[in-house]
Every structure is written in structure tokens, then in C-alpha cells.
# Entry
Amino acid sequence: MKLRLVVLLALILTVSCSKSENDVEIIEENPTEEIPTEENPTEENPTEENPTDTGEAPTFIAGEDPKPDGKTWEKVAILSDEFDGNSLDTDKWASKVNSWVGRAPGIFKDEAISFENGNLLITNYMLEATETINGNTYTHGGGLIRSINAAAPGMYFECRMKANKTFMSSTFWLINTRNEGTGCDRRTTELDIQECVGEITTSANWASTFNRGMHSNTHSRNAECAETKEGSKGNTTVADIVYEDYHVYAAWWKSPTEILFFLDGELQKIVNPVEEFSLPMYYRLVTETYDWNPVPTDGGLTGSFENRTTKYDWVRTWKLIDN
# Structure
């Protein structure tokens, strides 16, 4: 059994308080660099996970479950994993994506992936020797896990994750495979549930809280047809330091036109993407480097294994069925 934090909830009215290696080639898999789109981020103190969590229902605090009357949540087994084993379940996950080895100077390496105490770990590290691929120079190792099976509209996605403490990212998101589409469906849709960093090295004001809370977005790009709208809409919730504890990051793909984002079981924002999110998408669990968050002068990965590691306790996916 996994260790759970004991949470004391007191209500006092007088006190305020991220297919096999033979996949079709992915065009422009490289995700959009995260830039918050909300001018006024939400200030939030997220509630910790229920210590009695059994994985039999999604994580919601009282009154926050958005399911309609007459419906209940059913786990989607092929898109859920408790990570209790010692290796990737290859019926569910793979660690490579054709055409995308990582955004320089960070490259995806299987050596970064391990398992410990019921967690999937991705541990960032300095490469022993610089690598050059397609003219790009790589000095840092990170990791990528992708789902083999696709998610669909109507599903609810959640991940219990503890971010690493470095300038590299900790992420949980979904993206489609552009080459699977035809006609005007030959486009890219990306649903970023959580993207964050442990150390902020940029001086950009918009990134000043990127190590706190939840940074979510929806992206439409690489359109085949002129009538397809492109752009981004998302939300930033400013809350706890991301590497100090585990948090549950979630989103309900309610419909092609509506996404609900949740932090620790509490609704943060309802987002209407600029274009319909109607195409199948695949999970990504990724640590990478960002152009906007430069490598520190010491390389940025001099800390301990613990500080360089993003921990994924579980990923769970749900769909609504009739009671």
C-alpha cells in the first residue's frame, strides 16, 4: 500500500481561512512553450489528497464532482496506471516518440526513467558527453512517457505528481497525432493539464509563478485548412510550491468545446478552446528544457537524485456511464 498523507479537514465558520515504436510519424510533436494566457491568475490554497483514496473514484473534494445526475464514473483501465511495478506496462506506455527527441539542450533518455515505492520516476541528469542531432546540441537528459491508447472527449484525466526541483519541467498533458487526421482534421490539438518548473531562471514576469500551483492551457495549431482557428486559451492557479509535495492535477474533457481544470479535487477554471477539441489525444508525462527558462551557469542539475526527480504516483482516467 502506498503511504498517504493524513489530512485533517476542519470547517470553522467564524474563521476565514503526460502505440509501439512503429507508430506513424508525428509531425511537429514538439509542444507549444507554455505561456499563461490569464492576466489575473487565481490565488488558491489547494486541499491535499484524501488519505482514504482507494483509486475507485476520481479525486474531488465535497461538492466539486461535476458528473450529471444519473451518471457515475468508471475507470478506463487502458489509460490508468498505479505504477506499482518495476517497469513500464508496454500495453499502456512507451518512452519514445518518432520525430521528437526533445527540445535542445534537453534530450529524452530511457536512462532517466525508473520505478520506486509505487512511483514512476523521471530523473533529469547531465549527459556524460554532448550529443548533436539534426544540428541541435544536447547536454541534459530528461524523459518522456506516452500512452499507447488514445483518450476521447468526455473523459476525465488526473495525475498525482510531485515536481522536480530543477529548471527543467514537470508535466502532465495530452496531444493528438496530426498524421492520423485527414482533411481539416489534419491539425494539432494539445491539452496541457500541468506544466511547471522547480527553478525559475528567466526574468519574464509571466513566468514568475511557474514553480507554484497549476499552469494549464489548450492549443490549436498546424492547421491544414484556413478556416481552422489557431491559438491558445488556458489558466494559471497560484498555489503551493510544486516540488514540496504531491498534488492531483486533473481535467475533464467535457466536450469538444469545454475543458474543466481541477487542482487537488477542486475546480479552478472552465476553458473554451479556440477550436474544437474533437480529435483523439494521447498522454504525455515529460520532463524537458524550455527556451524561456535558460540553463543556469552551473548546468542546473547539481542537486541530489531526489531534487532532480519528478515523481508520478498514478495516472487515472475515467468516463461517465449510467448508474
